[in-house]
Amino acid sequence: MATRLASLVIAAEQPARLARFWSDLLGWQLTTKSPAEAAIQPPPGDGCDLTLVFAATSRPKTTKNRLHLDLSSTSGENQRETVSRAVSSGARPIDIGQRNVPWIVLADPEDNEFCVLEPREEYANSGAIAAIVVDAQDPARLARFWSPFTAWPITADDPAITTLRNPTGRGPTLEFLRVNTPKYGKNRLHLDLSGDDPAETDRIQAAGARPLGTTQPNAAQADFTDPEDNEFRVLLPN
Questions:
Q1: Which residues are registered as beta bridge partners of 167?
Q2: 86-99 pLDDT, tens per residue?
Q3: Share of the chain above pLDDT 90, in %
Q4: Which burial class, exposed, middle or buried, applies to 89 when counting CB atoms under 10 A from its CB (0-12, 13-18, 19+)?
Q5: Separation of alpha carbons 193 and 49, rounded Å
């Protein structure tokens, strides 16, 4: 596999604090903690093979995120318990125009939106995180870009949402949700790919990614934006 989806990176004014919130909420282990960065990883039984990384920033959040997490639940009682735990740890209910829906929309302690879903059969094997959701003006196009670089096939393609799923059937889906608003400013959340071959960056550019700056020889990472200007990184081998 040339590249794989390695992590979701969340900009945080207080990385350790935000990592502790998500660690407690998801039941994941805090593996890295420093003033500049904190990271949490799922337990082996969760089924997810991604890391959540919280990277220090001095830039405050000003607009709705274009990436967010959907959390799974196994029952109505479990959904209510997850919401209660989140709120007691510093989250708050928010209104983003969702109206009368069966899921609960919250903001974490740094105002990042996330949803606690009602029980859904398609997320029965997902673990704590049901989906990573990306706002997209053209969901199908963006899914076609990301599918070969994550090695996750497209498993559902509707006008409103296009879904990628890990071939194992475990862990969260990657979902591209149709919105009318274009991207504005730098995303607070972004995806990291792990690459086995530095030459893979050429294939990524050929597929429609735009490089951010110039990647130096022996660099640890290469920075890009996808076809809808969402920032992402390719972590390169040493």
A1: none
A2: 999 999 999 998 88
A3: 85
A4: middle
A5: 12
